[in-house]
## 1
Amino acid sequence: MARQLNGVVRAAGFVLLLLLLIPLTGWSKEAIPVAEDPEIEKRMLALTMDLRCLVCQNEPISDSRAEFSNDIRREIREQIKANKTDEEIIQFLVDRYGDFILYNPPVKSTTVMLWFGPAILFVIALGALIVHLRRRRVQIEDISLSQEQLETAEALLNEEKKGKNV
Amino acid sequence: MMRYLIPLFAFMILAAFLLVGLSLNPRQVPSPLIDKPAPKFQLNQLHEPDKIMSSDENLGKVWMLNVWASWCVACRDEHPLLVQLAKSGIVPIYGLNYKDERNTALQWLKRFGDPYAISIVDSDGKVGIDYGVYGVPETYVIDKKGIIRHKQIGPVTVDSLEKTIIPLIKELQQQV
């Protein structure tokens, strides 16, 4: 009797072990297509890569999951569907959010420093370096030694060599 | 002497730039809509959804458009101030209920007070995009000709009301 029970427990244990070995499939839905038209999605993505998310400022809209970026993406999709050109869409956004939304702002009076400031600083720094190096070259003078000094120096060097040999 | 003065001056210029930089707020993106006509809208009203309000109805008066939502935490901070401003009768405030749900929005107004002459519903945020909204709350001051004169990004404060918004409104109301 006890033996029989033992057998049942073993069998049950074995079945349990087998059950544990069944690979549990992760049931996931098929990915929902982001847009019906991959062509639109491609253009939208290309556009949003150069647009700044104003909420999360250091992220382009294409990468951002902020509500703001969702809205802009939706707006851009709709405008692409409405056959607007890329330029028209960018202008639409600049009219509303300003140049700040562009990662590539146009050159104009307010952005001159942004575009050329680093180059100007570089030129100033380069100029300072050249002036400094020239000045230093003037400061270095060749000191000419007299015959007597040269002989003394040679004698001292020879002495040292001899000393080492000993 | 010059040797020591040049680095000192260079440092002072750098320090001045950094000091100015510290006081700038990168979240305050200057709006290109200032001094431009306020985008037109025709939206359903929050309280009476069958009624439509058009932005043209406000031509001829100075008004404030406050973008708010019940999910917006910062809106709660500024709300008592708006209620107070509405009571003072200085300027009518219109509320743009931005990407919100009607019932929660109505409850929110019941709970915190309703400073709005009319609240209009922008459920999908389309008008928000037209106004360049990116962080709620935002508040616009619009003059008699329908031109945006000021945009406050983030909550209105006592300071911004007293120093900027109210003086500007009074000045605009003087204009014909």
## 2
Amino acid sequence: MATDMTNLGHIDLTVNGRHRALDVAVHHSLLDVLRDDLRLTGTKECCLVGECGACTVIMDGRTVDSCLVLAVEADGAQITTVEGLATDSGLSTLQQAFLDKGAAQCGFCIPGQLLSAEAFLRETPHPTREAAEEAIAGNLCRCAGYEQILDAIMATAEAGQQ
Amino acid sequence: MSAPIIGSSPNRVGGIARVTGQHEYVADILVADALEAKFVTIDCAHARIISVDASAALALPGVLAVMTAADMPQPVPRFGPQLEDRPVIAVGETKYHGDPVAIVVAETRDLAMQAAALVHVEYEELPAVFTLAGALDPSAPLVQDPSLRPKDRFASTNVLREHPIGWGDVDAATADVVVEHTYTFPMVTHFAIEPHAYMAAPDGDGIAVWSTIQHPNWLQKVIAQVLHMPLAKVRVFAPDPGGGFGGKQHAKYEPLVALAAMHIGRPVRLVLTLEETFQAVRRASAEVRVRTGVNRDGSLVFEDIVADYLIGAYADIADRVVGKGSYPAAGPYNVPNVRIMARSVLSHTMPSTAFRGFGNPQVNWAVESNLDEAARAIGMDRLQIRLHNLARKGDAFIPFDTPADGHWEQTVLRAAELIGWDSPLPEGRGRGIALGVKSGPTTGLSYSTVRLLGDGSVVVFAGTSDMGQGARTVFAQIAAQELGAPLGWVAVVMGDTAVVPYDQQTSASRSTVLMGNSVLQACRSIQKQLSAMAARLHGLDEAQVTMDRGVIHLPDRDLTVLDVLVPGLGRLGGELTGNGEVRKDADPTHPLSGAPAFFEFNCTAIEVDVDRETGDITIARHVTVSDVGKSLNPLQVRMQDEGAAIQGLGHTLMEHYIWDEKGRLRNPGAIDYRIPTSMDLPLELIGATIENEDGPGPYGSKGMSEGALLCISSAVGAAVRDAIGVPMRDLPLTPERVWRALQEPSS
């Protein structure tokens, strides 16, 4: 491996509303930095090739697979992770719907599902179920709790807020 | 008395931690000073290791060790749940693609990866077998060293074991029509979204091990044996796994990580990549030949089944999968003559292991599909032939075993009704129906402890692993119901062998029945103590006091738990403790070493739409009905059934391992191996349960987490055959296969 593992780059991120200034290895992904440098381990690591969706976060309003984004590319970005969904008053409507509908089984894919659903509902407040199916198509769930995840997304939309 | 919490679907215990990201899976746990490990592997399956040169790797600052078999205790420890045939690291040769030759331990993951790439392994590739035909060829190289099983008549072959079972006399039986075909089932993998992860840390004069394991107590025994430590000095932490499906039942790389941690004297962490997880666990592929004899009135005369399962290079639990999975292969029918011969065949591939359905889906695919062919041959409706032969409750359909333990015809009739079996079929569509039966746990041992604390809240200690099936919630529901606590006042502690009493394992859909009964027993022990306390407080005879569902009944009035507990415990407070022990001992006279505690029974009915231009299959309607005895938590029951059904659509429609000529897996990982997504769901998925409260578990429940996967392929295959008029005998039913079948109709 020719990569110089010690080459660092400085980045400024806003993660869940909090400013973070970091020196990160230039070859590290946003996922690495979230999990290892910031210890925000709610974002999960699985396939590392952008296929499973477990590492989904919202970056500047759009979902990204954080395993495919170099941390230095995220310099200046606003990032929302699963840790940023709940508020001082408790779970977000979406989180509560996931809980109430039983969407979380083993739970490993759920942070990614939540972030995909969150971004989707911000853009599409009144979706069809078919559109919701497409919105989470990049988030694998091997417990196959897709019906409950979709139920939760639709219930959140019906509640008229996220 | 509060509303019953059994039979309701409260929010999952542990659910909040799962929607906030707070739940810590193994890879999320921070252990101070932990080193990172990475395997060194070679680019073929079977090879003699000539030398390992780690000098360049060790020259990197921050690389602490590159360990090979030479650095392990000698002889290199071997382990395994059936045979102790698997070395902690490759010894002398690799036996499958991905078999670790060395483990690199370094300060960071980057360094470990960099160093692993610098380790030079000189090796000589050896002849290898990756298929049943290759492994069974008389000139095939032997996968296993024959000295590992002296006196075994198969030691000089690649057959690990044979599992013959049967009754009646197949050879003497004569049937009006005999239908014979061969079916194949692919190698597939669990693909839990959480890849396997392990940590080990020296802990005083013992060791702590973290693992994504389903059976922490099994792992504790393996580590104790490998390290020559007493059980009490091996503490296994098993945080709720991120999906298991059988792949995380037994130890894999924990012994190696533990040896590395002890060697270096610091914590070592190994998180497998998804690709490495593909190389660690899979389901056995199978080739099954079925001869079905049937009379013109629809009565089954015989089933003659030969099932070869391709297992991997080490036994793991794979041979048990073959024996137990093939055992009910003739199905839930009264068949007077049955002969089943199943074989586990070793190959130079990663060890196959337990996977939801445990060897049953392979034979079900063959036998249920062949039953459809038999029905067509005699011109009988495919539902009617099943109802005609189906075992009724109490029938000894396997003559020497537990009789049919449910009104299974109710399940079948419900599924037929929900799919509209007799309704006209829309143009281009096809329907199929199939039945699945699986032997439940044949042995078991589940201890539990329940503590009723001074304020009426409850702590349940149960060694089950909650990998998504919701065991925590069910145990909490039982404790809440029995001890009158709100669900939110019940905590369930699992996954720490230093704290939680012994449980044999989390498998075979056993936990609600075995551990559930254990928890129930512990709660009832506390009820007796509370009754005695109430009698003492009120000057009554103990026989005058009873308790149920959290209410203590005196002759003249009812009391709550707190009415009794607070004065009963007195000024110092304290608590009441109850223990449960549910034991199902082995029966050496039984072919499976024990009759099943229950059968899982499911009927799946499918309606498909097949695109004749592309071969693409759309599941238009998917009906899955399971006999669950009693749904303790209806939502969780539905999710287990739906999850099993959709997981089964994976191996039915899209999933399979692809190998090259060197035995290298060509499609590991998420890009080239597809599992069902939200876009692959049936257009309509209808689940139902049959609940006669006739199971051995708490409140009449039965185990149920695998049923909906048992016969899914058979039902889909039957529907596709119905739609296109061509039988399909090889899974998965990819568009290409279906399209080819349409181009070249075979007999």
